[in-house]
Write a structure and sequence with these properties.
The structure is a single chain. By secondary structure, the chain is an alpha+beta fold. It has two domains: 73 residues, Nucleic acid-binding proteins (OB fold (Dihydrolipoamide Acetyltransferase, E2P), Beta Barrel); 142 residues, de novo design (two linked rop proteins), CATH 1.20.1440. Strands 1-2-3-5-4 form a five-stranded mixed beta barrel. The protein is globular, with a radius of gyration of 18 Å.
């Protein structure tokens, strides 16, 4: 039995008292674990991008291992008490769930993801552009490291020039500078869609992120 730290990407219910927790970990990469859910279990532990600890029991005869004795590794008070940040983590977890294939263990991905979550948790203001920066850094974390020219074939030119120039600005800015780029909700949405198309092409995945619409409505 190993005690490890997990980042929660989502859950799938199996039966009345069990869930598959889809997660990222340093040890196992992207992997699902079976968790037995009792009446007294706290659902807050399994919110998107929660950082938890669990006892993992490996089973050589099954691809689904058990996770027990779940507890919060870091409470993420700054995220959980903020509707906007919670919605951003919903988007981030959905993107990770759809881009990182089950069984993949990209070197450094877990530590980068953990750092991103803690950065968002600590921010007090000016985080409306965070999910765009997250997408660009995710490209690099997965080994693509795009230049602006690499993104050009995936940009929808019919959306006008505003988001085109803003995306160039993101590519040339530091993290703190990119948080201050003035954008409408519509342009944020368009930029996110451009980067998602790039990710779809390079991961050969269909990335239909439903939470992007919610972000658009919140960050007008």
């Amino acid at each position: 039995m190993n005690v490890i730290e997990l980042i929660v990407l989502g859950t799938t219910k199996i039966g009345e008292n069990a869930l598959v927790v889809h997660s990222l970990s340093r040890e196992y990469g992207r992997r699902g674990f079976v968790v037995r859910v009792g009446k007294g279990a706290s659902p807050s532990l399994l919110l998107p991008l929660g950082i938890i600890e669990a006892d993992i029991t490996e089973n050589p005869r099954s691809t689904l291992w058990n996770a027990r004795h779940l507890s919060a590794s870091i409470p993420l008070i700054g995220i959980r008490n903020n509707l906007y940040k919670n919605t951003i983590t919903l988007f981030m977890s959905e993107v990770l769930y759809r881009t990182v294939k089950d069984g993949a263990n990209e070197e450094g991905l877990y530590d980068w993801c953990r750092k991103s979550i803690l950065t968002l948790d600590a921010m007090e203001s000016d985080f409306s552009n965070f999910h765009i920066r997250f997408l660009l850094e995710l490209c690099s974390a997965l080994g693509f490291s795009p230049t602006f020219e690499d993104l050009l074939p995936h940009i929808d030119r019919n959306d006008g020039k505003g988001h085109f120039e803003a995306l160039r600005g993101f590519m040339q800015s530091s993290f703190s500078e990119s948080m201050l780029i003035p954008l409408s909700g519509a342009d944020r949405n368009k930029i996110a869609e451009d980067i998602l198309r790039y990710l779809e092409f390079h991961t050969e995945s269909s990335i239909n992120v439903r939470s992007l619409r919610v972000l658009h409505e919140l960050f007008l």
